[in-house]
Amino acid sequence: MTVDPPERVMRYLFRPPAAEAAGLLSLPWHQPLAEWDDALLIEVPQRGISRHVVRFTACDGRVYALKEIAEPLARHEYALLSEFEGEGLPSVSVLGICVDRPDAQEAILVTRYLEYSMSYRYLFSGPRAEHDPERLIDTLVQLLVRLHLAGVYWGDCSLSNTLFRLDAGSYTAYMVDAETAERYPTLSAGKRDYDVHLARERVGAELMDLQAGELLPGDIDPISIADGLPVRYAALWEEITREEVFRADEQALRVAERLARLNDLGFDVGEIELVTSPEGARLRVDTRVGEPGHNRREFARLTGLEVQENQARRLLNDVHSYRAYLETREGGPVAELEAGRRWLTEAYLPVVDAVPAELAGRLPPAEVYHEVLEHRWFLSERAGFDVGTWAAVRSYLQQVLPRTPSELTTPSVIADRGRSLDRLVTGRSRSD
């Protein structure tokens, strides 16, 4: 391993597991990021716009984002992102910072690259672009509401500072940049309003930039979309936080409806406060602020798989359908856990295992399975009868999945790149 001379003493602060950072220590941290050898870096085609110098590298089969930033801001962001990860808030995962660099250089913040994530620019310019800014704004609004519920003032909410992951045909949004964020026990209405105001301005400018690049359809007005952001935010905030008053005899039904509505919106329920009196009942729901998990937990219980919330909701429906099929075929009840196990081995795994090696890694397995289900429905509608799973799989692998670009996070691609970097910084490969 290359050791810096004494005059280049630097400090590295890494979060556990520290072993993950070991392979990064040989990188030339004493040099400005802008001057690093291109051979040490990798291109991320879906990266967004940043006001800082940002570079990407791979090591031990993982991709990392390196951002050059003033040390106080780096320490602030490092601390906040560590908190967010511990609480399950949707944000990128921080690994560490490098400080005390020579010649009064700024610190470098190291975060783990969010696999299968896309920037808003990539979503509008990529091969799978669907030109749906309203759906993207809804996803961004949900992220902002989730942060505000956790007492987080973002201060720089924008499409550029957000990454998006496909989630059963929809998207899940993740916070990328937290250098301007502040944390409070609770967030005042004024702070929330100002955050929403800033988001509206930034989103409007970003959509106008897309329009100038001819990436927006002509019938979409960026200003109108941006003006709708505060309206969407206010409606979601009201739905999530409002107290509900109803007659005592409606108690069970109204509580169940409210909890189901919150789950459908992607929020988990924490504490429920129900105050009853002769005049009626008052319901207050404390919403959990971590990543949505109601369906994820149930799906994991039945199958052992960890997926995203919308994927879990869609796949749970398929598990339930498969259970009904088994009970009809076998003429008797099938336990939930048994149905989940058999769905996994008889339905899910055969489909995802059918993806050929040259297409593996284009999408997460759960998203592939969801898209196969959607493709089966589309083919069946067109044919006028159910074409069956395997006809849908063959058609999907021939016509749909090849149009999805090979992602940087394909394990084999990262592993190969990581081995190349090993040879460059240490002069040997892991197999030596």
Descriptive overview:
This protein is α+β, with helices and mostly antiparallel strands and 432 residues long. The chain folds into four domains: 6-115, Phosphorylase Kinase, domain 1 (2-Layer Sandwich), CATH 3.30.200; 117-241, Transferase(Phosphotransferase), domain 1, CATH 1.10.510.10; 244-287, no CATH class; 354-414, no CATH class. 46% of the residues lie in helices and 16% in strands. It has 13 helices and 13 strands. The strands form four sheets. A five-stranded antiparallel sheet has the order 1-4-5-3-2. Strands 6-8-9 form a three-stranded antiparallel sheet. Helix 8 (294-303) crosses helix 9 (309-330) and helix 11 (365-383) packs across helix 12 (389-400). The longest helix has 24 residues, at 189-212.
CA(first)-CA(last) distance = 14 Å
Output the CATH topology of the largest domain: Transferase(Phosphotransferase), domain 1
CATH class of the largest domain: Mainly Alpha
In CATH, the homologous superfamily of the largest domain goes by the name Transferase(Phosphotransferase) domain 1
Lateral strand order in the biggest sheet: 1-4-5-3-2
| Level-2 CATH architecture of the largest domain | Orthogonal Bundle
Number of structurally distinct domains: 4
Report the C-alpha radius of gyration, rounded.
24 Å
Characteristic key phrases:
16% strand; 5-stranded antiparallel sheet; alpha+beta; 4 domains; Transferase(Phosphotransferase), domain 1; 13 strands; globular; 432 residues; Phosphorylase Kinase, domain 1; 13 helices
